[in-house]
Amino acid sequence: MKTANVLIIAEHDHQNISLATRKAVTAAASLRCFSSDLSIHILVVGFQCGCVAQQAAELTDIDKVLLVDDVCYQHGLAENVSKVIKDLASNYSHIFMSSSTSGKDLLPRVSAMLCIEQLSDVMEFTGLDSVVRPIYAGNATVEVKSCEALMVATIRSASFEPCGISEQHAEQEMLKISHPLTHTQFVSMQTSNHERPDLTTARVVVAGGRGVASKDGFLLIEQLADTLHGAVGASRAAVDAGFVPNDYQIGQTGKIIAPDLYIAIGISGAIQHIAGIKDAKVIVAINSDPDANIFSYADYGLVGDLFELIPHFIQQCE
Ligand SMILES: Cc1cc2nc3c(=O)[nH]c(=O)nc-3n(C[C@H](O)[C@H](O)[C@H](O)COP(=O)(O)OP(=O)(O)OC[C@H]3O[C@@H](n4cnc5c(N)ncnc54)[C@H](O)[C@@H]3O)c2cc1C
Protein backbone atom coordinates (compact mmCIF):
# COMPACT_ATOMS: atom_id res chain seq x y z
CA MET A 1 0.00 0.00 0.00
CA LYS A 2 1.27 3.53 -0.84
CA THR A 3 2.11 6.08 1.87
CA ALA A 4 -0.93 6.37 4.07
CA ASN A 5 -2.97 9.54 3.73
CA VAL A 6 -6.23 9.55 5.63
CA LEU A 7 -9.21 11.75 4.82
CA ILE A 8 -11.82 12.06 7.58
CA ILE A 9 -15.21 13.41 6.64
CA ALA A 10 -16.37 15.81 9.35
CA GLU A 11 -19.92 15.45 10.59
CA HIS A 12 -21.34 18.77 11.80
CA ASP A 13 -24.46 20.92 12.06
CA HIS A 14 -22.77 23.95 10.43
CA GLN A 15 -21.83 25.20 13.91
CA ASN A 16 -20.15 22.37 15.80
CA ILE A 17 -18.14 19.35 14.81
CA SER A 18 -19.62 16.14 16.22
CA LEU A 19 -18.07 14.11 19.03
CA ALA A 20 -18.30 11.07 16.75
CA THR A 21 -15.95 12.84 14.29
CA ARG A 22 -13.44 13.35 17.09
CA LYS A 23 -13.63 9.60 17.73
CA ALA A 24 -12.96 8.93 14.04
CA VAL A 25 -9.84 11.10 14.37
CA THR A 26 -8.62 8.89 17.24
CA ALA A 27 -9.24 5.83 15.07
CA ALA A 28 -7.24 7.36 12.20
CA ALA A 29 -4.40 8.36 14.54
CA SER A 30 -4.13 4.73 15.72
CA LEU A 31 -2.82 3.93 12.20
CA ARG A 32 0.35 5.87 13.07
CA CYS A 33 1.70 2.66 14.70
CA PHE A 34 1.82 1.17 11.20
CA SER A 35 2.96 4.25 9.25
CA SER A 36 4.89 6.95 11.09
CA ASP A 37 4.62 9.43 8.18
CA LEU A 38 0.83 9.01 7.96
CA SER A 39 -0.92 12.31 7.37
CA ILE A 40 -4.50 12.97 8.45
CA HIS A 41 -6.70 15.50 6.68
CA ILE A 42 -10.26 16.39 7.62
CA LEU A 43 -12.85 17.53 5.11
CA VAL A 44 -15.56 20.01 6.11
CA VAL A 45 -18.31 20.40 3.51
CA GLY A 46 -21.17 22.83 4.13
CA PHE A 47 -22.29 26.41 3.82
CA GLN A 48 -20.98 29.23 6.00
CA CYS A 49 -19.23 26.69 8.18
CA GLY A 50 -15.85 28.34 8.67
CA CYS A 51 -16.30 27.95 12.44
CA VAL A 52 -16.47 24.17 11.97
CA ALA A 53 -13.24 24.24 9.94
CA GLN A 54 -11.65 26.23 12.77
CA GLN A 55 -12.74 23.61 15.32
CA ALA A 56 -11.38 20.88 13.05
CA ALA A 57 -8.03 22.67 12.86
CA GLU A 58 -7.80 22.60 16.65
CA LEU A 59 -8.13 18.80 16.92
CA THR A 60 -5.04 16.83 17.87
CA ASP A 61 -3.50 14.69 15.12
CA ILE A 62 -5.00 16.70 12.24
CA ASP A 63 -2.41 17.84 9.67
CA LYS A 64 -4.70 19.76 7.36
CA VAL A 65 -8.31 20.92 7.10
CA LEU A 66 -9.99 21.06 3.70
CA LEU A 67 -13.00 23.36 3.57
CA VAL A 68 -15.57 23.20 0.79
CA ASP A 69 -18.06 25.98 1.48
CA ASP A 70 -20.85 26.55 -1.00
CA VAL A 71 -24.56 27.25 -0.80
CA CYS A 72 -25.27 23.99 -2.64
CA TYR A 73 -24.10 22.05 0.48
CA GLN A 74 -26.26 23.94 2.99
CA HIS A 75 -28.44 20.88 3.72
CA GLY A 76 -25.54 18.41 3.85
CA LEU A 77 -27.23 15.96 1.51
CA ALA A 78 -25.29 12.81 0.63
CA GLU A 79 -26.39 13.24 -2.99
CA ASN A 80 -23.88 16.04 -3.66
CA VAL A 81 -21.47 15.86 -0.69
CA SER A 82 -20.50 12.38 -1.96
CA LYS A 83 -19.37 13.94 -5.25
CA VAL A 84 -16.90 16.18 -3.40
CA ILE A 85 -15.38 13.15 -1.67
CA LYS A 86 -15.18 11.29 -4.98
CA ASP A 87 -13.29 14.26 -6.51
CA LEU A 88 -10.70 14.13 -3.71
CA ALA A 89 -10.45 10.35 -3.27
CA SER A 90 -7.44 9.75 -5.52
CA ASN A 91 -5.19 11.68 -3.07
CA TYR A 92 -5.89 9.28 -0.22
CA SER A 93 -5.27 5.71 0.95
CA HIS A 94 -8.07 5.76 3.58
CA ILE A 95 -11.40 7.62 3.80
CA PHE A 96 -13.20 7.46 7.17
CA MET A 97 -16.40 8.77 8.66
CA SER A 98 -18.16 7.86 11.89
CA SER A 99 -20.70 5.08 11.74
CA SER A 100 -23.49 7.57 12.42
CA THR A 101 -26.67 8.06 10.41
CA SER A 102 -24.80 10.54 8.19
CA GLY A 103 -21.81 8.22 7.76
CA LYS A 104 -24.09 5.32 6.88
CA ASP A 105 -25.81 7.55 4.32
CA LEU A 106 -22.71 9.05 2.77
CA LEU A 107 -19.90 6.49 2.65
CA PRO A 108 -21.75 3.61 0.97
CA ARG A 109 -22.66 6.10 -1.78
CA VAL A 110 -19.01 7.17 -2.10
CA SER A 111 -17.88 3.52 -2.18
CA ALA A 112 -20.37 2.70 -4.91
CA MET A 113 -19.23 5.71 -6.98
CA LEU A 114 -15.62 4.57 -6.65
CA CYS A 115 -16.49 0.86 -7.22
CA ILE A 116 -14.89 -0.01 -3.87
CA GLU A 117 -16.15 -2.36 -1.14
CA GLN A 118 -16.79 -0.44 2.07
CA LEU A 119 -15.76 -1.72 5.52
CA SER A 120 -18.38 -0.93 8.16
CA ASP A 121 -18.21 -0.34 11.91
CA VAL A 122 -14.43 -0.61 12.35
CA MET A 123 -13.60 -1.31 16.01
CA GLU A 124 -9.82 -1.58 15.69
CA PHE A 125 -7.04 -1.41 13.11
CA THR A 126 -4.62 -4.33 13.10
CA GLY A 127 -2.62 -2.95 10.17
CA LEU A 128 -2.84 -0.29 7.47
CA ASP A 129 -5.15 -2.53 5.48
CA SER A 130 -6.72 -4.76 8.15
CA VAL A 131 -9.47 -4.09 10.67
CA VAL A 132 -11.60 -5.76 13.32
CA ARG A 133 -15.35 -5.29 13.01
CA PRO A 134 -18.47 -6.82 14.56
CA ILE A 135 -20.58 -9.53 12.95
CA TYR A 136 -23.75 -11.40 14.02
CA ALA A 137 -25.25 -8.32 15.68
CA GLY A 138 -22.10 -7.72 17.70
CA ASN A 139 -21.97 -11.25 19.11
CA ALA A 140 -18.65 -11.96 17.39
CA THR A 141 -15.89 -9.94 15.80
CA VAL A 142 -13.99 -10.69 12.63
CA GLU A 143 -10.62 -9.47 11.37
CA VAL A 144 -10.67 -8.60 7.67
CA LYS A 145 -8.07 -7.34 5.23
CA SER A 146 -8.92 -4.82 2.55
CA CYS A 147 -7.58 -5.68 -0.88
CA GLU A 148 -8.47 -2.25 -2.30
CA ALA A 149 -5.88 0.48 -2.96
CA LEU A 150 -8.23 2.80 -1.07
CA MET A 151 -9.95 1.80 2.17
CA VAL A 152 -13.37 3.40 2.69
CA ALA A 153 -14.62 2.68 6.20
CA THR A 154 -17.14 3.79 8.81
CA ILE A 155 -15.79 3.97 12.37
CA ARG A 156 -17.70 2.54 15.32
CA SER A 157 -17.87 5.45 17.77
CA ALA A 158 -18.32 3.20 20.80
CA SER A 159 -14.83 1.73 20.23
CA PHE A 160 -12.77 4.94 20.35
CA GLU A 161 -12.34 7.88 22.71
CA PRO A 162 -12.70 11.40 21.26
CA CYS A 163 -9.41 13.04 20.22
CA GLY A 164 -8.19 16.01 22.21
CA ILE A 165 -7.85 19.70 21.38
CA SER A 166 -4.41 20.98 20.43
CA GLU A 167 -2.69 24.33 20.98
CA GLN A 168 -1.17 23.98 17.50
CA HIS A 169 -3.68 24.68 14.75
CA ALA A 170 -3.59 22.71 11.52
CA GLU A 171 -3.33 24.45 8.16
CA GLN A 172 -6.67 25.18 6.45
CA GLU A 173 -7.20 25.04 2.70
CA MET A 174 -10.33 26.35 0.98
CA LEU A 175 -11.33 24.33 -2.10
CA LYS A 176 -13.70 25.57 -4.78
CA ILE A 177 -15.81 22.54 -5.62
CA SER A 178 -19.44 23.01 -6.48
CA HIS A 179 -21.91 20.23 -7.25
CA PRO A 180 -25.41 21.75 -7.29
CA LEU A 181 -28.18 19.22 -6.65
CA THR A 182 -29.71 17.97 -9.85
CA HIS A 183 -31.73 14.79 -9.36
CA THR A 184 -32.77 15.52 -5.76
CA GLN A 185 -34.05 18.75 -4.23
CA PHE A 186 -34.21 19.51 -0.53
CA VAL A 187 -37.84 19.94 0.62
CA SER A 188 -37.88 20.07 4.44
CA MET A 189 -36.32 18.65 7.55
CA GLN A 190 -37.86 17.59 10.84
CA THR A 191 -35.59 17.20 13.83
CA SER A 192 -36.27 15.96 17.31
CA ASN A 193 -36.08 19.01 19.48
CA HIS A 194 -35.12 18.04 23.00
CA GLU A 195 -32.64 19.53 25.38
CA ARG A 196 -31.24 16.26 26.69
CA PRO A 197 -27.76 15.06 25.72
CA ASP A 198 -27.35 13.19 22.45
CA LEU A 199 -28.08 9.48 22.93
CA THR A 200 -24.91 8.28 21.17
CA THR A 201 -22.52 10.42 23.20
CA ALA A 202 -24.30 10.83 26.57
CA ARG A 203 -22.40 9.73 29.69
CA VAL A 204 -25.66 8.46 31.25
CA VAL A 205 -28.49 6.77 29.34
CA VAL A 206 -31.79 5.70 30.89
CA ALA A 207 -33.83 3.43 28.61
CA GLY A 208 -37.28 1.95 28.83
CA GLY A 209 -38.80 -1.11 27.22
CA ARG A 210 -42.18 -2.69 26.71
CA GLY A 211 -42.45 -3.04 30.49
CA VAL A 212 -42.92 0.73 30.76
CA ALA A 213 -46.34 0.00 29.24
CA SER A 214 -47.33 3.40 27.78
CA LYS A 215 -46.31 6.87 26.62
CA ASP A 216 -47.28 8.17 30.06
CA GLY A 217 -45.13 5.48 31.70
CA PHE A 218 -42.19 6.88 29.77
CA LEU A 219 -42.53 10.19 31.66
CA LEU A 220 -41.02 8.33 34.60
CA ILE A 221 -38.04 7.24 32.46
CA GLU A 222 -37.61 10.83 31.26
CA GLN A 223 -37.82 12.15 34.81
CA LEU A 224 -35.07 9.78 35.96
CA ALA A 225 -32.93 10.67 32.93
CA ASP A 226 -33.33 14.39 33.71
CA THR A 227 -32.43 13.84 37.35
CA LEU A 228 -29.21 12.12 36.23
CA HIS A 229 -28.61 14.64 33.37
CA GLY A 230 -28.77 11.73 30.96
CA ALA A 231 -30.26 10.83 27.59
CA VAL A 232 -33.41 8.75 27.09
CA GLY A 233 -33.32 5.55 25.04
CA ALA A 234 -35.70 2.70 24.33
CA SER A 235 -35.95 -0.87 23.14
CA ARG A 236 -37.44 -1.57 19.75
CA ALA A 237 -40.58 -2.96 21.39
CA ALA A 238 -41.14 0.40 23.11
CA VAL A 239 -40.58 2.25 19.84
CA ASP A 240 -42.85 -0.11 17.90
CA ALA A 241 -45.56 0.35 20.53
CA GLY A 242 -45.38 4.12 19.90
CA PHE A 243 -44.23 5.06 23.44
CA VAL A 244 -41.32 7.11 22.00
CA PRO A 245 -40.02 8.16 18.55
CA ASN A 246 -37.76 5.76 16.67
CA ASP A 247 -34.61 7.85 17.07
CA TYR A 248 -34.65 6.66 20.70
CA GLN A 249 -34.05 3.05 19.66
CA ILE A 250 -30.92 1.36 20.96
CA GLY A 251 -29.62 -1.89 19.50
CA GLN A 252 -28.69 -3.74 16.36
CA THR A 253 -31.06 -1.72 14.21
CA GLY A 254 -30.93 1.36 16.42
CA LYS A 255 -28.08 3.26 18.00
CA ILE A 256 -24.90 1.70 19.37
CA ILE A 257 -24.00 3.44 22.62
CA ALA A 258 -21.13 3.33 25.11
CA PRO A 259 -22.13 5.50 28.10
CA ASP A 260 -20.47 5.37 31.51
CA LEU A 261 -23.83 4.32 32.98
CA TYR A 262 -26.71 2.55 31.22
CA ILE A 263 -29.97 1.91 33.08
CA ALA A 264 -32.33 -0.57 31.38
CA ILE A 265 -35.87 -0.42 32.75
CA GLY A 266 -38.53 -2.96 31.77
CA ILE A 267 -36.24 -4.31 29.03
CA SER A 268 -35.82 -8.09 28.76
CA GLY A 269 -32.33 -8.04 27.17
CA ALA A 270 -32.85 -9.56 23.71
CA ILE A 271 -29.56 -10.05 21.82
CA GLN A 272 -30.53 -7.35 19.33
CA HIS A 273 -30.82 -4.87 22.20
CA ILE A 274 -27.63 -6.07 23.90
CA ALA A 275 -25.77 -5.45 20.60
CA GLY A 276 -26.28 -1.73 21.20
CA ILE A 277 -25.26 -1.52 24.87
CA LYS A 278 -22.40 -4.00 25.27
CA ASP A 279 -19.78 -1.26 25.48
CA ALA A 280 -21.51 0.58 28.34
CA LYS A 281 -19.13 0.76 31.30
CA VAL A 282 -21.75 0.04 34.00
CA ILE A 283 -25.13 -1.56 33.26
CA VAL A 284 -28.00 -1.39 35.75
CA ALA A 285 -31.17 -3.40 35.06
CA ILE A 286 -34.58 -3.02 36.65
CA ASN A 287 -37.03 -5.78 35.80
CA SER A 288 -39.85 -7.62 37.56
CA ASP A 289 -38.72 -10.97 36.11
CA PRO A 290 -35.69 -12.34 38.01
CA ASP A 291 -34.89 -14.60 35.03
CA ALA A 292 -34.79 -11.74 32.48
CA ASN A 293 -31.77 -12.06 30.17
CA ILE A 294 -30.72 -8.46 30.88
CA PHE A 295 -29.51 -9.56 34.33
CA SER A 296 -26.80 -11.73 32.67
CA TYR A 297 -25.23 -8.53 31.34
CA ALA A 298 -25.97 -6.19 34.24
CA ASP A 299 -23.39 -5.07 36.80
CA TYR A 300 -26.25 -4.22 39.16
CA GLY A 301 -29.77 -5.68 39.03
CA LEU A 302 -32.93 -4.73 40.81
CA VAL A 303 -35.87 -7.16 40.69
CA GLY A 304 -39.19 -5.42 41.14
CA ASP A 305 -41.97 -3.32 39.68
CA LEU A 306 -40.51 -0.28 37.91
CA PHE A 307 -43.52 1.85 38.84
CA GLU A 308 -42.72 1.31 42.54
CA LEU A 309 -38.92 1.45 42.27
CA ILE A 310 -38.28 4.40 39.94
CA PRO A 311 -40.03 7.07 42.06
CA HIS A 312 -37.84 5.96 45.03
CA PHE A 313 -34.80 6.07 42.75
CA ILE A 314 -35.63 9.62 41.64
CA GLN A 315 -36.21 10.71 45.22
CA GLN A 316 -32.81 9.30 46.27
CA CYS A 317 -31.04 11.04 43.38
CA GLU A 318 -32.60 14.47 43.98
C1 LIG B 1 -33.74 -8.15 12.94
C2 LIG B 1 -34.13 -7.64 14.31
C3 LIG B 1 -33.56 -6.47 14.76
C4 LIG B 1 -33.90 -5.97 16.02
N1 LIG B 1 -33.31 -4.82 16.46
C5 LIG B 1 -33.56 -4.40 17.73
C6 LIG B 1 -32.92 -3.25 18.25
O1 LIG B 1 -32.14 -2.56 17.57
N2 LIG B 1 -33.19 -2.90 19.52
C7 LIG B 1 -34.05 -3.60 20.33
O2 LIG B 1 -34.23 -3.22 21.49
N3 LIG B 1 -34.67 -4.69 19.85
C8 LIG B 1 -34.46 -5.09 18.57
N4 LIG B 1 -35.14 -6.17 18.10
C9 LIG B 1 -36.25 -6.73 18.89
C10 LIG B 1 -35.79 -7.67 20.01
O3 LIG B 1 -35.69 -8.98 19.52
C11 LIG B 1 -36.82 -7.66 21.17
O4 LIG B 1 -38.08 -8.00 20.66
C12 LIG B 1 -36.94 -6.32 21.89
O5 LIG B 1 -35.67 -5.84 22.25
C13 LIG B 1 -37.79 -6.52 23.15
O6 LIG B 1 -37.98 -5.28 23.76
P1 LIG B 1 -38.30 -5.22 25.32
O7 LIG B 1 -37.18 -5.83 26.07
O8 LIG B 1 -38.67 -3.82 25.62
O9 LIG B 1 -39.63 -6.06 25.42
P2 LIG B 1 -39.90 -7.46 26.09
O10 LIG B 1 -38.99 -8.50 25.57
O11 LIG B 1 -41.36 -7.71 25.97
O12 LIG B 1 -39.53 -7.24 27.62
C14 LIG B 1 -40.24 -6.42 28.48
C15 LIG B 1 -39.65 -6.62 29.88
O13 LIG B 1 -40.28 -5.76 30.78
C16 LIG B 1 -40.40 -6.43 32.02
N5 LIG B 1 -41.49 -5.80 32.76
C17 LIG B 1 -42.82 -5.80 32.45
N6 LIG B 1 -43.51 -5.07 33.34
C18 LIG B 1 -42.60 -4.59 34.23
C19 LIG B 1 -42.69 -3.77 35.39
N7 LIG B 1 -43.87 -3.25 35.78
N8 LIG B 1 -41.55 -3.50 36.08
C20 LIG B 1 -40.37 -3.99 35.69
N9 LIG B 1 -40.21 -4.77 34.58
C21 LIG B 1 -41.31 -5.06 33.87
C22 LIG B 1 -40.68 -7.86 31.65
O14 LIG B 1 -40.31 -8.75 32.70
C23 LIG B 1 -39.81 -8.04 30.42
O15 LIG B 1 -38.52 -8.56 30.75
C24 LIG B 1 -34.82 -6.68 16.84
C25 LIG B 1 -35.37 -7.86 16.36
C26 LIG B 1 -35.04 -8.34 15.13
C27 LIG B 1 -35.65 -9.64 14.65
From TrEMBL:
<dbReference type="InterPro" id="IPR018206">
    <property type="entry name" value="ETF_asu_C_CS"/>
</dbReference>
<dbReference type="InterPro" id="IPR014729">
    <property type="entry name" value="Rossmann-like_a/b/a_fold"/>
</dbReference>
<dbReference type="InterPro" id="IPR014731">
    <property type="entry name" value="ETF_asu_C"/>
</dbReference>
<dbReference type="InterPro" id="IPR014730">
    <property type="entry name" value="ETF_a/b_N"/>
</dbReference>
<keyword id="KW-0249">Electron transport</keyword>
<keyword id="KW-0813">Transport</keyword>
<keyword id="KW-0274">FAD</keyword>
<protein>
    <submittedName>
        <fullName>Electron transfer flavoprotein subunit alpha</fullName>
    </submittedName>
</protein>
<dbReference type="InterPro" id="IPR029035">
    <property type="entry name" value="DHS-like_NAD/FAD-binding_dom"/>
</dbReference>
<comment type="similarity">
    <text>Belongs to the ETF alpha-subunit/FixB family.</text>
</comment>
<dbReference type="InterPro" id="IPR001308">
    <property type="entry name" value="ETF_a/FixB"/>
</dbReference>
<keyword id="KW-0285">Flavoprotein</keyword>
<dbReference type="Pfam" id="PF00766">
    <property type="entry name" value="ETF_alpha"/>
</dbReference>
<feature type="domain" description="Electron transfer flavoprotein alpha/beta-subunit N-terminal">
    <location>
        <begin position="6"/>
        <end position="190"/>
    </location>
</feature>
<dbReference type="Pfam" id="PF01012">
    <property type="entry name" value="ETF"/>
</dbReference>
<dbReference type="InterPro" id="IPR033947">
    <property type="entry name" value="ETF_alpha_N"/>
</dbReference>
